[in-house]
Write a structure and sequence with these properties.
The protein is of the alpha/beta class and about 525 residues long. Helices cover about 40% and strands about 10% of the residues. The chain has 19 helices and 16 strands. The strands form 3 sheets. Strands 9-8-7-6-3-2-1-10 form an 8-stranded parallel sheet. The longest helix is centred in the first third of the chain and has 22 residues. The radius of gyration is 24 Å and the shape is elongated.
Amino acid sequence: MELEEKAGQVLCLGWQGATDAEAQTVNPHARALVEELGAGGIVLLRRNIGPLPRCRETLTELQALSRAPLFIAVDQEGGLVNRFGAPFPTFPGNMALGAVQPPEEAEALAYRQSQWVAEALRGVGVNWNFAPVVDVNNNPDNPVIGIRSFGETPERVGRLGAASVRGTQESGVLACAKHFPGHGDTAVDSHLALPTVPHSRQRMETVELVPFRAVIAAGVGAIMTSHVLFPALDPDRPATLSPAVLTGLLREELGYEGLVISDCLEMEAIASTVGTVQGAVETLRAGADMALICHSLSRQREAKAALIAAVQSGYLPLSRLDEAVERIQIARRRFILPPAFPAEQTVATRTGSLLEQRIARRAITLVRSAEAGLPHLTSDSRLAVLSAHRCLLELAARLATEAKTAVPGMTITPFPMPPDFPNEIVQKTLESVRNEASVVLVATAPNSGTGSPLNRQAQAELVQALAERFGSRLLVVALREPYDLRHYPAAANCLCIYGPYAPNLAALAEALFGKIPLSGKLPVTVSDR
């Protein structure tokens, strides 16, 4: 290859359009990534994914335009991060898998889920999944990982991560463990700023690095870097830009020989420090093989030019670029050739739905109980369901469906709460609930799911007032992170379902009426504030 072609091959790029419909086609931006920049890979974001037949046509066309077979990547983690929507199942996500007992069943389900996702992705034309997340989430205030993690126990995260890697790659899709060397113990979102993990190298050996050793042993084909500063490893550069982390630790100490890709260099942890363009040079220089730039065509063009200039000046050794290209070629031979996807597109929605339902049922966890169980519901019960989350009406409908056969005659009344919990509405709701309900369910989450800010303090005060009135007849359900339950120490009964998604809500309804056991176990520690 000529230098210009090599510089394109180490880029994994995303494209935009004036509308989502335009971004779902091979528009001028998408065409430029392949024909002008010669990118080695492209990444699909939600804006690029419409009806599956159209998506497959778009990816087929991009493959035909490319001189070399393209890596086509996506974030299809399950739970919070899914680029493909229906007919793909949502899957409850990693922390739900971490809650499943016994551990052997959790591993089997993690394998089956990743296998199912990989086969569905191949049917559309995707050959690289940016999953699994193997960060150890031991910081309850982590704003970006949370339920994307399998939990806080390094060994358990490693075993579930390894199972996910095997399921993905045995189904013909390149897996990508992230975010090396760990994003779980941060309280800052690297999309917005640069986080720091201040722990010693010895502590990292027993926590952050354990899952990465496990997935490397499982043969993971790719690892994604974190935009996180680890002073014990490199006091000056975040992991993405650090030779000490990517070459010294990952390559030399851990012996990893697979593909290394940066997290998106347009995230503020990089963009507002060294900058996206220089970040592309620095991550390659540090030991990464591909630079991920998801959005701006101008930055993508500048990054390629900067890589060429850095090689020509000697700042980026040609040998380092050649090494990266060789790793890309090895991964390409392993996961793209023969053809990137089957001749027939298939998404087996029924089998996927059954699997996601099983995971949700097995994960649901009783965190706290006043009477060794949930509040008892009878045909005379009047259940009030309160939430500021957008899933409230779906939850109430599922509860009503289950009640028809389980306890006919009981009433279920939803009380939607505005995310800002204005006092006049809170007081009016409290009065209505006190007069009308015999049992209360409050579904909480760290946000409303609508984009509107949630007043968490006011939500906690509402739960406190309900606890004083209803005692053991109050049930608080954490729709997402179990950490949310720290804010409600007065709540006698608490459940966690690990996601406000259809299978999780269905499992909650079944559990409330005694149709399924509460067999999940918290994969993280929840302490009252």
